[in-house]
């Protein structure tokens, strides 16, 4: 009973999303959060306990990373929708009753002096003369579409219809009304022809052939069989279990959020940098802004510029080691030789 609100496929997908969220939280937090670090057993148990306790909004572990908070936020939203849907579906299965008529039988109608509706004259006469209803309790209905209005206004408690018309009416209003099979039946419709008509025998023979071949039964099943919705309401008082289609978007949202956060974490791990995401975005915007103003410097230009700056910074130290005595002006003039 307690697993019927969800289909087995939905239970399996929910468990898979739960484990994937557990892995994502552990991967994002185990390096920087002391509560998710330590021996492997402690890490796994802490991640599992955190995710399972989030089903009841009872988690208490601290979260350090913003991307982990985003994953948990989406997961809690999914959990809230799942819990509400499960509670509503289970309540429906425990409380919803099958639609049943509030009229027991014909004698109950007569004993309670309730009004009934009928449409054609021969039916009303049959109800009055054969079933012994009081004429004051018989309400003549002009058209079929008037029956729902009379029922909703509680002007009539029941209606007597011919079997084909009763099937059509119940097929159209199966969620609002129900019927009981009458104990009195007739042979069917009668076809009248002029006395001595040559087509009377052929007509009767054709109807007999249709009845024996089963064509009349197939036509009745095709035109008067209740729709799938009506037959389901008739045979079962349990609402349908919720399937994956009901929560496909939520699961896709949770899976996508966890995957994106995982990928971003892997990128930061492979390319460690002190820059935050906002600083990288600003640097990217500046790059495109410079590109619009002119061609950006090439890597070779940047390298040569850096070397020039480095040489300029190092040149004073090199000049400091040059002695003044080595300059030409510091040497005394040599004496001229006399031949």
UniProtKB/TrEMBL annotation:
Renumbered residue ranges of the record's region Disordered: 295-339
Residue spans of biased composition, Polar residues class: 301-329
Membrane topology category: Multi-pass membrane protein
Subcellular localization(s) per the UniProt record: Membrane
Record keywords, A-Z: Glycoprotein, Ion channel, Ion transport, Ligand-gated ion channel, Membrane, Receptor, Signal, Transmembrane, Transmembrane helix, Transport
Entry GO terms, CC: membrane
GO-annotated molecular function: ligand-gated monoatomic ion channel activity
Residue ranges of domain Ionotropic glutamate receptor C-terminal in the record: 22-226
Biased segments, Pro residues type: 330-339
Transmembrane segments: 7-28, 40-58, 70-88
Family annotation (InterPro entries): Ionotropic_Glu_rcpt (IPR015683), Iontro_rcpt_C (IPR001320)
Source taxon at top rank: Eukaryota
Pfam families: Lig_chan
Main localization (coarse): membrane
Record family assignment: Belongs to the glutamate-gated ion channel (TC 1.A.10.1) family.
Name of the molecule in the record: Ionotropic glutamate receptor C-terminal domain-containing protein
Organism from which the protein derives: Juglans regia (English walnut)
């Amino acid at each position: 009973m307690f697993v019927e609100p969800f289909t087995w496929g939905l239970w399996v997908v929910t468990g898979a999303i739960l484990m994937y969220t557990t892995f994502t939280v552990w991967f994002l937090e185990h390096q920087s959060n002391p509560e998710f670090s330590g021996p492997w057993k402690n890490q796994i148990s802490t991640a599992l306990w955190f995710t399972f306790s989030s089903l009841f909004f009872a988690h208490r572990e601290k979260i350090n990373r913003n991307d982990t908070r985003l994953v948990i936020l989406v997961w809690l939203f999914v959990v809230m929708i799942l819990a509400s849907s499960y509670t509503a579906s289970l309540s429906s299965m425990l409380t919803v009753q099958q639609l049943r008529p509030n009229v027991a039988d014909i004698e109950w109608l007569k004993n309670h002096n309730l009004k009934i509706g009928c449409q054609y004259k021969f039916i009303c006469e049959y109800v009055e003369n054969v079933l012994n209803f009081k004429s004051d309790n018989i309400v003549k209905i002009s058209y079929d579409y008037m029956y729902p209005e009379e029922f909703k206004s509680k002007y009539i408690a029941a209606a007597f219809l011919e079997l084909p018309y009763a099937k059509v009416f119940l097929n159209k209003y199966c969620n609002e009304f129900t019927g009981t099979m009458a104990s009195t039946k007739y042979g069917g419709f009668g076809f009248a022809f002029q006395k001595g008509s040559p087509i009377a025998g052929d007509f009767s023979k054709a109807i007999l052939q249709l009845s024996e071949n089963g064509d009349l039964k197939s036509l009745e099943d095709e035109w008067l069989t209740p729709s799938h919705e009506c037959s389901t309401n008739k045979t079962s008082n349990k609402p349908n279990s919720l399937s994956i289609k009901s929560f496909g978007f939520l699961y896709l949202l949770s899976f996508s959020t966890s995957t994106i956060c995982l990928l971003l974490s892997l990128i930061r791990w492979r390319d460690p940098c002190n820059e935050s995401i906002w600083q990288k975005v600003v640097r990217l915007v500046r790059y495109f802004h410079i590109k619009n103003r002119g061609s950006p410097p090439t890597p070779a230009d940047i390298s040569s510029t850096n070397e020039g700056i480095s040489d300029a910074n190092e040149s004073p130290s090199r000049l400091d080691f040059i002695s003044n005595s080595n300059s030409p002006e510091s040497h005394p003039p040599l004496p001229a030789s006399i031949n």
